[in-house]
């Protein structure tokens, strides 16, 4: 029979967070091995529970969750999101500017599908959360990666952004707080990006899913609060700040210069209608989450579990010879560097595969986040301190063995 092949649209699409190495890990688990997973920010499996009031509100409202909702979402959660944009000083947002989705991920793809024609370019950070690159490619566009500078605490390189703009550039993606680096961008950097977007009439896609997961008293600024004459699409949700990944409750807010984007917004409305609506139970959680006690503050503040685990993970990582890491100011991840003189890695996916096979620790290689060299990997610091200590002990043993094998010990 004629082989059935996947669409050519998927040729440049990859998502290595759930890629081939994860498949190997699943196989090893089936064989009875216990794997320490530091590959994905799935909070529930590490005993980070959602706020109880969210769970109770979903249960109480479940009898009313069987029908379709408005294609953009229910009135009450959209109103709560609108109020949240006001708290973030984003001006001019109405309920009609708010779209609720099955997680922010669905809305990322929807935003790109509605915008891009074949050959259109979108500026995406390197490293990035790989769904952004995949969504651009899947939508027929061309992702163009601008560099974030590790020596400057992973800040976007504004000059590199400017050099990579062409007549085909339609938008720029800003991931702040950043996944995978944990960087948090100051107002000065955000304002420079806004200035570039204004000059070249670019849409700004702002991924702010970790905007409350901040350490050491840091404060997050929404880039959309800095201008009214640029079009912004700001994405957020309950997955991380409220430990509710599986509820798939995210949102997208259109703000700024909307007058010249009527046709694009019509496209967004069309796609929102085509998928009928986001899941109703998840929508019931949004108003309570945004208006309730912000328990994330307890986790990231002094004595908080996430803060302790970040500090421990950074200490254990940077004690390993040849490993350096910018300490994250936000989010749930670190993006350490392996000194290429000590670790001459040619294929970082194979490197991560060897680590999994030898020490049963699962990470994601840096090139899986569209980083330009095979010298980084991403670490999730969600396991408890005992498990983190065990995991980094195994990583240290593997790296010691690697140094010996390559004569760089």
From TrEMBL:
Pfam families: Aminotran_1_2 (PF00155). It comes from the Bacteria. Its cofactor is pyridoxal 5'-phosphate. One of its GO terms (molecular function) is L-alanine:2-oxoglutarate aminotransferase activity. Residues 34-394 form the Aminotransferase class I/classII large domain. The keyword Transferase applies. InterPro entries: Ala_Aminotransferase, Aminotransferase_I/II_large, PyrdxlP-dep_Trfase, PyrdxlP-dep_Trfase_major, PyrdxlP-dep_Trfase_small. The keyword Transferase applies. Keywords: Aminotransferase, Pyridoxal phosphate, Transferase. Its EC number is 2.6.1.2. Belongs to the class-I pyridoxal-phosphate-dependent aminotransferase family. This is alanine transaminase. The lineage of its organism: Bacteria, Pseudomonadati, Pseudomonadota, Betaproteobacteria, Burkholderiales.
């Amino acid at each position: 029979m004629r082989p059935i092949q996947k669409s050519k649209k998927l040729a440049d699409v990859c998502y290595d967070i759930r890629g081939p190495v994860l498949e190997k890990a699943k196989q090893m688990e089936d064989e009875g091995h216990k794997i320490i997973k530091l590959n994905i920010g799935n909070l529930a499996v590490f005993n980070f529970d959602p706020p109880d009031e969210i769970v109770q509100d979903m249960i109480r409202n479940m009898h009313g969750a069987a029908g379709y909702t408005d294609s953009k979402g229910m009135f009450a959660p959209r109103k709560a999101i609108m109020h949240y944009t006001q708290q973030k000083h984003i001006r001019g947002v109405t309920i009609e500017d708010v779209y609720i989705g099955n997680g922010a991920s669905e809305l990322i793809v929807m935003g790109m599908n509605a915008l891009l024609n074949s050959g259109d370019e979108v500026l995406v950070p390197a490293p990035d959360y790989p769904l952004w690159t995949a969504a651009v490619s899947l939508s027929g566009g061309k992702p163009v990666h601008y560099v974030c500078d590790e020596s400057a605490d992973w800040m976007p390189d504004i000059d590199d952004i400017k050099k990579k703009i062409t007549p085909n550039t339609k938008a720029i993606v800003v991931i702040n707080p950043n996944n995978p680096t944990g960087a948090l961008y100051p107002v000065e950097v955000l304002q420079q990006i806004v200035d570039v977007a204004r000059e070249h009439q670019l849409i700004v896609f702002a991924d702010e899913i970790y905007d409350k997961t901040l350490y050491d008293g840091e404060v997050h600024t929404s880039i959309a609060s800095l201008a009214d004459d640029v079009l912004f699409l700001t994405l957020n949700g309950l997955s991380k700040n409220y430990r509710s990944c599986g509820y798939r409750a995210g949102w997208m807010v259109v703000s700024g210069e909307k007058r010249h984007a009527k046709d694009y917004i019509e496209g967004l409305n069309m796609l929102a209608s085509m998928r009928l609506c986001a899941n109703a139970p998840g929508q019931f959680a949004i108003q309570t989450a945004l208006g309730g006690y912000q328990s994330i503050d307890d986790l990231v503040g002094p004595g908080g579990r996430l803060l302790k685990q970040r500090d421990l993970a950074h200490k254990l990582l940077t004690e390993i010879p040849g490993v350096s890491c910018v300490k994250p100011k936000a989010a749930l991840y670190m993006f350490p560097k392996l000194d290429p003189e000590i670790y001459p890695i040619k294929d970082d996916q194979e490197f991560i595969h060897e680590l999994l096979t030898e020490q049963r620790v699962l990470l994601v290689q840096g090139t899986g986040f569209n980083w330009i060299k095979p010298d980084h990997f991403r670490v999730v610091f969600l396991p408890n301190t005992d498990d983190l200590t065990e995991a980094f002990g195994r990583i240290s043993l593997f790296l010691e063995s690697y140094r010996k094998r390559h004569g760089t010990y």
